[in-house]
Amino acid sequence: MWMYLGLLAALFLGLHNLCKKHAVHQNAVLPVLLGTIFAGFLLLLPFFIISIYAPDYAKQMGFYITKIPGSTHGFIFIKSLIMTASWILAYQALKHLPITIVTPIRSSGPFFTFIGAIFIYNEQPNSLQWLGFFTIILSVILYAKVGKKEGINFHKNKWIFAIVGATFLGASSGLYDKFLIQKLVLNPQTLQFWFCGYTLLILTFILSITWFPYKEKRAKFKWRWTIVAVGILLQTADYFYFKALQDPDALIMLLSAIKRSQLLIAVVIGGLVFKEKNKRKKLIPLFGILLGVFLILYS
Question: Among 6, 91, 120, 194, which has the minimal tally of Cβ within 10 Å of its Cβ?
């Protein structure tokens, strides 16, 4: 069952990436990120209120937000710090790079998760899983060659380093999620609500220094409906992902790889919507990434 939940998470993540590209296009990145987190927080806020005033009803709905000790709040705050840094880097990169370049680089995240799962959680891969992951990595390298044809030098472009850093931090957060869900026994909605709340505080603090005081910067921000859509789609994807992680048999390395099937939406549909270059050539490494995901699932 957890694999199917992972595929549902991938579906909503693919749609989330398309909306995110539209939201940050020629726009101020940090306020867009703040808007998406705020939209996600508002989506979850009613469940928090219901959990306080009508806990039995919230439990019946399956969206009860439990009370947690202060130490657990600290662990969730650490996740918020990690993901805030990852998102800031990723949003900046997405603003300056084609989605058909950003998304495949992000797809290397399972490799970092794969290594962490081996050393931290002692998850044991088999030969097909090894083959699948290296197929993904080689496909990402092939994307780099396609990217050079769009004037993107992967060795000198600072936004490439930004998206690589975002990918590493995102993978670290994925490994941390397993600890939060399985070791601390947090249910998805509790983790999501407090994570959104703390991330909102962190971003508000950052923007209060770097954006709110400057009128010329505020004038560059454009409100778009996709900002709200990004927040809702992300929380929906996270809910299915965290539900999958609740299964004690779930392997974080495989879940991370399954989520990469979002590439089919982001690269194929995104390439058509945003009219990016070399779409046919990008289909070859895309097939390689999907083949790697298939090998992992088949194993």
Answer: 120
